[in-house]
């Protein structure tokens, strides 16, 4: 049998075809491999991997950093260790986060490593690394819940002594560093106390020297840090321990880790973020913020209990409850008035708090006395409730500073001749920046004298030494020992009903700003500004608000919602603020009236109060 062979022409064509197909397959494989190596970084035209080239990434971590204390990340830090674990050197290592080149490592020799840290403004998702030698690394970035509070170095300047207030959010204190830098011309000796505990006494810092006190040093000295407001007291002293002067920079650097759990108050369904911006230029400590909330709508929507008992306020971490007070008879209205005590607001900065609601299984925590600097609605006897320190002219408890248990108010004086009372409030904290006082008063029902007053920044010690107050036209604003009258310095807003002399009373019935610095009787002193009104004895209830900004020496007095006094100047720029007494006085003389007060509240105040922004509702689900 004859067999035919494949013709040379056909064989050649077949060989060419196989070669082309093999070339196409190889090209497709090569391009696929190149895409796999380079990922989405098409602009990097690196060759195939070098034999022996190998890269490794370890300790890959993402941190959320909060710099302003609101528990929300202001930046993200991606960190890792880049290792060359191959047998060739690596060059031009490009690092991409979410397809954007963030860093380049020019060179990494064999068996070497480099720590890499990248700071980003937005949340990172994926890391991709490529190098000239053609190798590649890709990884999803870890998604962490924890947030680190790290404001960096906070700088404070000390020339003699200074109390440095700062606030720490609730969480785990990871580190705390105090750095001292002597920028003066001489050696400085420093006494340093943290929250009242000495941590350096004395600390010698030479000229231009820097020293550091870390958390572990503080711990060994048994000092402590606390959530909320902390105070570092720095005093420059001489070799004998006496106060001295110098030029010291104090840096504090706290680092706090917020809880890893979801930042939400457990058991509550809804919340609103409240942003508070300080604009007076003062550090505000335990400052009461007023809020106006439409609770009526929330109650109708079934989100809030009808008595507002499930309202709560927390700090930015949602882990520290804040004291608050809901004003009576405002729940379930479109203008519910709530006061919240915020532990610390640094000057010219912003803090965040949250209002929570939506919990059926809770009771109200509204508490006026824990929230305000002072509050008394006279539902209890002021002579025994611990809120007042009272002095009487004739030591007559039946007619001077008398509680009416039925009607729930207090008589400063009954309508009896020659009576007087001075009652100081035992308030919380200090009122260094100023105050707002609100109260109701009622005067009249007698033969026509004398009046009542609100006293502030007044000398209480003079009353303690003498034991009693005066009466008559002096309105009980001076101390008395049974024989002599003693000047009790301070400022006053009087509600006077009787003309006692040409110097003080331009009109008989008036409200006026005056003082007891210049003499022992307010009737003899200048009345700096006054307003004529019959409210001083019409025997009707009247509401009063008095605002005083200490830094600007500015006072405003509102009577029944109307601004009647708006004044700056003497006496506020003539005398000092040595004293801390705040209270009410009233007196009668040859004529009399009842002088009654009720619903007294006192809070802190600054001329430019914080700006408050209440954000839309958030839901837990």
Provide a descriptive summary of the structure in words.
The protein is mostly beta strands. It folds into four domains: 44-144, Immunoglobulin-like (Sandwich), CATH 2.60.40.10; 150-257, Jelly Rolls (Sandwich); 270-359, Golgi alpha-mannosidase II (Immunoglobulin-like), CATH 2.60.40.1180; 383-604, Jelly Rolls (Sandwich), CATH 2.60.120.200. Helix content is 9%, strand content 45%. It is built from five helices and 41 strands. The strands form eight sheets. Strands 1, 2, 5, 8, 9, 11, 14 and 16 form an eight-stranded mixed β-sheet that branches. Strands 23, 25, 26, 28, 36, 37, 38 and 40 form an eight-stranded antiparallel β-sheet that branches. A hairpin with a 2-residue loop joins strand 37 and strand 38. The radius of gyration is 37 Å and the shape is elongated.
Q: How does CATH name the architecture of the largest domain?
A: Sandwich
Mind telling me the CATH class of the largest domain?
Mainly Beta
Given the C-alpha coordinates, what overall shape results?
A: elongated
Sheet of most strands: 8 strands, mixed
Estimated share of beta-strand residues? over 45%
Kindly report the CATH topology of the largest domain: Jelly Rolls
Oligomer: single chain
Number of domains: 4
Number of strands: 41
Low-pLDDT stretches: 33-48
Q: Roughly what is the average pLDDT, rounded to an integer?
A: 88
Distance between the termini: 88 Å
What is the helix fraction of residues, given as a range?
Answer: under 10%
**Structural class computed from helices and strand pairing:** mainly beta
Number of helices: 5
Q: What integer value in Å does the Rg equal?
A: 37 Å
């Amino acid at each position: 049998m004859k067999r035919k062979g494949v013709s040379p022409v056909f064989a050649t064509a077949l060989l060419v075809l196989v070669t082309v197909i093999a070339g196409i397959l190889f090209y497709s494989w090569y391009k696929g491999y190149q895409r796999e190596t380079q990922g989405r970084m098409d602009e990097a035209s690196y060759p195939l991997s070098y034999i022996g080239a190998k890269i490794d990434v370890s300790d890959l971590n993402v941190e959320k950093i909060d710099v302003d204390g609101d528990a929300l990340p202001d930046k993200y830090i991606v960190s890792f260790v880049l290792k060359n674990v191959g047998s060739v050197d690596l060059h031009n290592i490009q690092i991409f986060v979410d397809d954007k080149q963030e860093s380049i490592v020019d060179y990494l020799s064999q068996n070497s490593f480099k720590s890499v840290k990248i700071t980003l403004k937005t949340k990172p998702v994926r890391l991709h690394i490529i190098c000239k030698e053609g190798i590649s690394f890709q990884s999803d970035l870890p998604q962490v819940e924890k947030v680190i509070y790290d404001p960096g170095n906070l700088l404070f300047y000390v020339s003699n002594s200074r109390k440095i207030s700062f606030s720490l959010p609730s969480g785990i204190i990871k580190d705390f560093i105090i750095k001292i830098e002597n920028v003066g011309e001489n050696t400085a000796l420093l006494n340093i106390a943290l929250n009242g505990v000495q941590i350096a006494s004395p600390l010698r810092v030479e000229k231009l020297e820097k020293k550091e006190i870390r958390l572990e040093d503080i711990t060994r000295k048994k000092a402590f840090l606390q959530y909320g407001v902390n105070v570092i007291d720095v005093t420059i002293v001489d070799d004998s321990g006496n106060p001295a002067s110098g030029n010291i920079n104090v840096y504090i650097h706290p680092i706090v880790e917020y809880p890893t759990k979801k930042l939400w108050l457990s058991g509550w369904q809804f919340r609103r973020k409240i942003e508070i911006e300080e604009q007076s230029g003062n550090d505000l400590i335990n400052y009461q913020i007023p809020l106006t909330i439409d609770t009526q709508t929330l109650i109708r929507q079934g989100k809030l209990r009808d008595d507002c008992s499930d309202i709560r306020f927390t700090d930015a971490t949602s882990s520290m409850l804040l004291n608050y007070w809901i004003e009576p008879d405002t729940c379930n209205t479109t203008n519910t008035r709530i006061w919240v005590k915020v532990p610390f607001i640094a000057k010219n900065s912003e803090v965040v708090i949250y209002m929570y609601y939506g919990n059926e299984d809770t009771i109200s925590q509204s508490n006026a006395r824990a929230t305000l600097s002072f509050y008394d609605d006279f539902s209890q006897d002021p002579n025994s409730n611990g809120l007042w320190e009272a002095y009487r002219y004739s030591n007559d408890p039946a007619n001077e500073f008398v509680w009416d248990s039925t009607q729930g108010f207090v008589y400063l004086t009954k309508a009896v001749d020659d009576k007087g009372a001075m009652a100081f409030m035992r308030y919380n904290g200090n009122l260094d920046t100023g105050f707002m006082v609100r109260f109701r008063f009622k005067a009249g029902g007698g033969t026509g004298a004398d009046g009542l007053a609100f006293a502030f920044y007044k000398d209480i010690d003079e009353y303690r030494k003498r034991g009693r107050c005066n009466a008559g036209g002096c309105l009980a604003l001076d101390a008395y020992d049974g024989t002599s009258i003693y000047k009790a310095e301070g400022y006053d807003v009087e509600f006077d009903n009787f003309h006692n002399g040409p110097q003080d009373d331009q009109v008989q019935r008036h409200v006026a700003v005056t003082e007891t610095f210049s003499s022992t009787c307010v009737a003899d002193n200048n009345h700096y500004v006054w307003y004529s009104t019959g409210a001083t004895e019409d025997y009707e209830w009247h509401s009063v608000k008095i605002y005083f900004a200490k830094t600007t020496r500015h006072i405003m007095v509102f009577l029944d919602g109307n601004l009647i006094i708006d004044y700056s100047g003497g006496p506020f720029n003539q005398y000092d603020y040595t004293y801390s007494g705040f209270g009410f006085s009233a007196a009668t003389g040859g004529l009399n009236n009842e002088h009654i007060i009720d619903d007294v509240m006192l809070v802190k105040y600054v001329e430019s109060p914080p700006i408050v922004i209440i954000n839309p509702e958030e839901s837990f689900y």
